């Protein structure tokens, strides 16, 4: 074999360039979620095909009841798929036991909800640091510093949740969710309980986490402003993704 074997034609070069980053960090294939209500199955997801590339920020929009939360819970491993596949960083969640799925979730996914769910007796710092201890790696002062600075929490760390504004509490919850460097941050209407000013700050900071730290984010929102902060908006209707159709 001569050198020719290692030289690519220009077309091949383009092909390889195009392939860069093509491996999605998250992928669903024909994903279904049914809930049992009495004797009938209520379909919340009806064949969702969804892909997120590493480093992308994606907003999911759609009317209430269209399946947004169900999608987030299934891709985050909080709920089990009824049919189809969910690939997180190459691992098929649907083929895992509950215990294995929980383990994968702990290491790869961060969650933020509309309600902040902070521990009321701990300070902001305690609420964030405890996530590092639960994760098992112990306190990492550098990561703590980077994350809390970026979320504008430096001066608020010794306050308890009841002494913080809603926007500050949500920023603590975001810090807690990403402190262990999850591959994906999933947020379910994180600005749903905030006034417009605090919502804007939180969206701005999520954008910064995405741009400066490369944090992949999938966020459900009703906030039309989200389109200006996120790379891509995906619209859902009746349990499927209907891209191109305006939401809400
Ligand atoms: N635990 C549940 N049991 C039964 N039905 C549910 C449950 N959770 C959601 N649903 C139903 O699934 C559909 C989608 O709900 P959801 O995913 O919460 O939508 P969204 O977040 O877009 O408002 C709705 O019809 C809802 O009533
Ligand atoms: Mg919801």
Brief digest:
Helices cover 35% and strands 24% of the residues. The protein is α/β, with parallel strands linked by helices.
Task: Give an account of the 3D structure.
The protein is of the alpha/beta class. It has one domain (10-246): 3-Layer(aba) Sandwich (Rossmann fold), CATH 3.40.50. It is 35% helix and 24% strand. The protein has helices at 10-19, 68-75, 98-108, 124-135, 141-150, 166-178, 196-213, 226-229; strands spanning 26-37, 40-52, 57-61, 83-88, 91-92, 109-112, 184-188, 216-220, 232-237, 240-241. It has a 6-stranded mixed β-sheet, with helices on both faces. Strands 2-1-4-5 form a 4-stranded antiparallel β-sheet, covered by helices on one side. β4 and β5 (91-92) form a beta hairpin. Residues 1-19 have low confidence and may be disordered. The structure holds adenosine-5'-diphosphate and magnesium ion. Adenosine-5'-diphosphate (ADP) binds next to β1, β2 and α2.
Using brief descriptors, characterize the structure shown:
Rossmann fold, six-stranded mixed beta sheet, four-stranded antiparallel beta sheet, disordered N terminus, binds adenosine-5'-diphosphate, binds magnesium ion
């Amino acid at each position: 074999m001569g050198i020719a074997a290692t030289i690519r034609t220009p077309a091949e070069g383009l092909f390889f360039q195009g392939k860069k980053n093509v491996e999605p960090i998250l992928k669903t294939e024909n994903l279904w979620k049914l809930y049992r209500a009495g004797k009938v199955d209520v379909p919340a997801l009806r064949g969702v095909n969804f892909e997120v590339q590493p480093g992308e920020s994606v907003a999911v929009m759609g009317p209430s009841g269209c399946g947004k939360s169900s999608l987030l819970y299934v891709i985050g491993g909080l709920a089990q798929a009824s049919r189809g596949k969910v690939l997180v960083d190459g691992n098929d969640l649907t083929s895992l036991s509950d215990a294995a799925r929980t383990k994968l979730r702990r290491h790869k996914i961060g969650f933020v909800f509309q309600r902040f769910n902070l521990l009321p007796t701990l300070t902001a710092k305690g609420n964030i640091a405890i996530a590092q201890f639960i994760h098992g790696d112990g306190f990492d002062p550098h990561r703590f510093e980077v994350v809390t600075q970026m979320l504008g929490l430096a001066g608020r760390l010794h306050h308890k949740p009841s002494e913080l504004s809603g926007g500050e509490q949500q920023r603590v919850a975001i810090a807690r969710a990403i402190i262990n460097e999850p591959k994906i941050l999933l947020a379910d209407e994180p600005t749903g309980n905030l006034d417009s000013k605090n919502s804007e700050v939180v969206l701005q900071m999520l954008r910064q986490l995405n741009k400066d730290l490369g944090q992949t984010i999938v966020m459900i929102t009703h906030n039309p402003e989200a389109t200006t902060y996120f790379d891509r908006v995906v619209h859902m209707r009746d349990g499927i993704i209907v891209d191109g159709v305006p939401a809400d």
